[in-house]
Every structure is written in structure tokens, then in C-alpha cells.
Fold this sequence. Notes:
Helix 2 (33-42) packs parallel to helix 3. This protein has a single domain (3-121), classed as 3-Layer(aba) Sandwich (Rossmann fold), CATH 3.40.50.2300. 30% of the residues are buried. It is an alpha/beta fold. It has helices at 11-21, 33-42, 62-70, 89-97, 110-121, and strands spanning 3-7, 26-30, 50-53, 79-84, 102-105. The longest helix has 12 residues, at 110-121. Helix 3 links the parallel strand 3 (50-53) and strand 4 (79-84). One of its GO terms (biological process) is regulation of DNA-templated transcription. Residues 3-121 form the Response regulatory domain. Keywords: DNA-binding, Phosphoprotein, Two-component regulatory system. This is Response regulator receiver domain-containing protein.
Amino acid sequence: MNSILIADDDKEMRELLRFKLQSGYEVTTVNDGKECWNYLKANPDNLPDLIILDIMMPGLSGYRVLDRMQDSERFDQIQIIMLTSRGKEDDIVRALESGATDYMSKPFSANELIARIKRVLG
Length: 122
């Protein structure tokens, strides 16, 4: 079963995503970018297949997490879908250029997100 790490500072969003995805995926949630980064460093033998990553989070933004992941080859195989309220072209381009696999703006369709997850995980 593919594993997904959800990093979002909004508890309701984390729980909604967990509920929608837990029947088909192993889902782990973290509260912000710093917890996401710490999780990745602490679990080198159990990295997620996909991260759903918010941009605007306290401590460490989604962009900073992406930048740190790009500095290490061990994270190259992790797919990343940015799921954020920031929907401007500059935000989308920056995320994709920083290594994100896909980008979705909030509010979002759960069915569309699931379809995108299936596409990137194969």
C-alpha cells in the first residue's frame, strides 16, 4: 500500500484529507513544515511515496521543505502535491521549479485530488 504524508497546519484539513485517503493509502499527518522535515529525517527507511504539502505554515513553509528536499538525493523518489490556498501563477511556477510534482489550489475537489494522486503514484 502506498504511503502519504500530509503536512498542513490546519487540523480540519488534515483530518478531511486523512478521512478521504485512508481507505486506499497508509496516511500520516504532521502539523507543519518543521514536523514534515523532522519526520523525513527521522524515517530514512520508511519515507512516504507522496507528500501533500501546504505552502503557508508556521516555522517552515512548504517552499522551504521543498528546498531542503532538493538538497538530498534520498528524497528524489518522493512525489509532492502542493495543496494550498495560494493560487497565483508565481506560486505555482515556484513550487514546480522547486521540485513539486503537481499543484492544487484550495478550495479543491476531493475527487480531483484522488485522481491526481493515482496519476502520480501510478
